[in-house]
């Protein structure tokens, strides 16, 4: 079968592979819609280490083509939503309520696509623990909305959960790319007061406002920390969905004592924090810094789909560039890498009867 990924580091392209097979608890899926993500680009450029001959992609909805003999809830032909994070639900770490970073396997070991096995930009891909990870595609949810639950909505909302956003909080969100935009939407759903989003791209600014941002701050108008402090002083919560290690210093300059900073940025292995003690309130400010990545599993995605079914949020609005056909994965990947100013997020729809 064919797939698109890292032939070598810094060399994306089409790769020929054996079709994967299902173990007793697993499923094999054929993607019907998929979306590239910055993590795919990160892998191809060596951000996860020496990963070569690896099909990328981790955001998809699709159709089941094969299941293992112990799978109970799915059968070939079922339309499914596939979380980008697929924990081994029998892992001992889950008994310690550590879903993502299974201590029996290591950091981020629930994120299997890309880092441990081929991803979803393929004619077929493998999903472990099918009954606990797959979700039946609801009839009254659009492909676009469903596709954006698997990573963008789950990740952005997790940033909000980690920030413990409460009624009336003033919240700053650094970055209004797809994850930051979902953090804006989640912050609004959690009942924040003022929601200050930082970004400049016009399409993203417009969607941030639609998702609930009350104020937009631009780097182009000067120092963002000074601008926000001038608007009403320090804030309750800060969510980092853009930037690098130095953005943490800006967050610390903005957060009140007793506040929470929630980091969603995937930092580079070469990055380093350099935080003056005064910024961290001399270690006396009861300031919490939390971090994490996209929670997965079926129940997580089902809960996000409930929000969509109730009409409270439409994450599919992130998808503003559509491609049709399996071979268009290449163009969708390329535009994601080029990031033209009007792009929020591209996606590819595949009708296998027409391929
Ligand atoms: Zn992603």
Q: What can you see in these coordinates?
A:
- The protein folds into 2 domains: 2-137 and 325-349, Quinone Oxidoreductase, Chain A, domain 1; 159-291, 3-Layer(aba) Sandwich (Rossmann fold), CATH 3.40.50.
- Helices cover 26% and strands 23% of the residues.
- It contains 9 helices and 16 strands.
- Strands 3, 5, 6, 7, 8, 15 and 16 form a 7-stranded mixed β-sheet that branches. A 6-stranded parallel β-sheet has the order 11-10-9-12-13-14, sandwiched between helices. Strands 2-1-4 form a 3-stranded antiparallel β-sheet, with helices on one face.
- The protein is globular, with a radius of gyration of 20 Å.
- Zinc ion (ZN) is lined by residues 37, 39, 58-59, 84, 151.
- Zinc ion (ZN) binds next to loops.
Number of strands: 16
The pLDDT mean sits at 95
Helix content: 25-40%
Structural class category: alpha/beta
- Named CATH topology of the largest domain: Quinone Oxidoreductase, Chain A, domain 1
CATH class of the largest domain: Alpha Beta
Total of domains: 2
Q: Give the N-terminus to C-terminus distance in angstroms.
A: 14 Å
Q: Outline the low-pLDDT stretches.
A: none
Q: Given the C-alpha coordinates, what overall shape results?
A: globular
């Amino acid at each position: 079968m064919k797939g698109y990924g890292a032939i070598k580091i810094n060399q994306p392209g089409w790769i020929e592979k054996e079709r994967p097979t299902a173990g007793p608890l697993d499923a094999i899926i054929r993607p019907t819609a998929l979306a590239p993500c910055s993590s795919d680009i990160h892998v191809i450029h060596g951000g996860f280490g020496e990963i070569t001959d690896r099909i990328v992609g981790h955001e998809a909805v699709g159709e089941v083509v094969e299941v293992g003999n112990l799978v109970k809830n799915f059968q070939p032909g079922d339309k499914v939503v596939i979380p980008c994070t697929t924990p081994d639900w029998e892992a001992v770490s889950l008994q310690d309520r550590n879903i993502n970073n299974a201590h029996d396997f290591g950091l981020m070991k629930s994120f299997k696509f890309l880092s441990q096995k081929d991803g979803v930009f393929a004619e077929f891909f493998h999903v472990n623990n099918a009954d606990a990870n797959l979700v039946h595609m609801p009839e009254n949810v659009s492909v676009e909305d469903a596709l954006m639950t698997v990573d963008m909505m789950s990740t952005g909302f997790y940033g909000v959960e980690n920030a413990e956003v409460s009624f009336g909080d003033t919240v700053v969100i650094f970055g209004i790319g797809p994850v930051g935009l979902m953090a804006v939407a989640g912050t609004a759903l959690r009942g924040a007061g003022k929601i200050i989003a930082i970004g400049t791209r016009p399409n993203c600014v417009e969607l941030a406002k639609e998702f609930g941002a009350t104020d937009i701050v631009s780097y182009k108008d000067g120092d963002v920390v000074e601008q926000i402090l001038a608007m009403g002083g320090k804030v309750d919560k800060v969510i980092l969905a853009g930037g690098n290690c130095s953005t943490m210093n800006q967050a610390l300059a903005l957060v009140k004592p007793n506040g929470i900073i929630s980091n969603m940025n995937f930092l580079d292995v070469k990055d380093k924090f350099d935080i003056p003690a005064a910024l961290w309130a001399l270690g006396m400010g009861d300031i919490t810094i939390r971090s994490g990545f996209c929670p997965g599993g079926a129940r997580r995605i089902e809960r996000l789909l409930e929000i969509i079914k109730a009409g409270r949020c439409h994450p599919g609005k992130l998808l503003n560039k559509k491609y049709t056909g399996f071979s268009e994965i290449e163009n969708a990947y390329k535009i994601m890498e080029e990031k033209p100013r009007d792009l929020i997020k591209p996606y590819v729809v595949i009708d296998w009867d027409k391929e």
